[in-house]
Structure formats: structure tokens, C-alpha cells
Write a structure and sequence with these properties.
There is one protein chain. The protein has one domain (about 1-90). With about 100 residues, it is an all-alpha fold. The longest helix is centred in the N-terminal third of the chain and has 19 residues, at about 10-25. Helices cover about 70% and strands about 0% of the residues. The protein is globular.
Length: about 100
């Protein structure tokens, strides 16, 4: 997450892939997690930085790369999370000052 925030997108992608590899056995049989949305974003930004292409083009490539590795059920779940309107995420708790 720090790598993503710092703009080191390639390292963020590598870290996320490493995490998935380490958790493969523990996550076996479980549905895909919402963290895959973060995977798509990190991969999109890495493609933008590496190939100097527009975000929309990079997103399409990242989407295909991530979805091609999912089973039908997980792809369906992830599609639902990507289709959620942004207002669904506006209820993030804030820390009292």
C-alpha cells in the first residue's frame, strides 16, 4: 500500500502478487476479496507509468489481465464491486480530531 501511495506502481504490483502467492493455500476455496480492485488499480497505474498510455487504455489491459486469472464466480463478484457507484464508498469513517 505504501508503494502505491508513493507512486512506485510496479513495486506495488509485485507486492500484491507476492501476497496472493503467499496466501494461495489459506485462501483456497474462498471467494475473491475486494483487494482485487486494488490489484487492478495498481496494475493500471503501472501500465500508465511504463507504457505512457491513457488511463482508460491501461485500465482495459489491467482488467483483462486480472480477470483472465479468475473463475466465473470470482469474476462475477469482482464485476459487482467495480460497478458500485462511488457514493457507496463515501461512508468511510473519519478519525475524530
Amino acid at each position: 500500500m505504501l508503494q502505491l501511495t508513493a507512486g512506485d506502481y510496479s513495486s506495488a504490483v509485485e507486492s500484491r502478487e507476492s501476497l496472493h502467492e503467499r496466501r494461495r493455500r489459506a485462501d483456497s476455496g474462498r471467494p475473491v476479496g475486494r483487494g482485487r480492485v486494488l490489484d487492478i488499480y495498481a496494475r493500471t497505474m503501472a501500465i500508465v507509468a511504463q507504457r505512457h498510455v491513457p488511463f482508460a487504455e491501461a485500465f482495459g489491459t489491467a482488467y483483462q489481465e486480472v480477470f483472465s486469472k479468475l473463475n466465473d464466480h470470482d469474476a462475477f463478484m469482482l464485476s459487482g464491486w467495480l460497478a458500485a457507484p462511488p457514493r457507496n464508498f463515501s461512508r468511510i469513517p473519519t478519525i475524530a480530531r
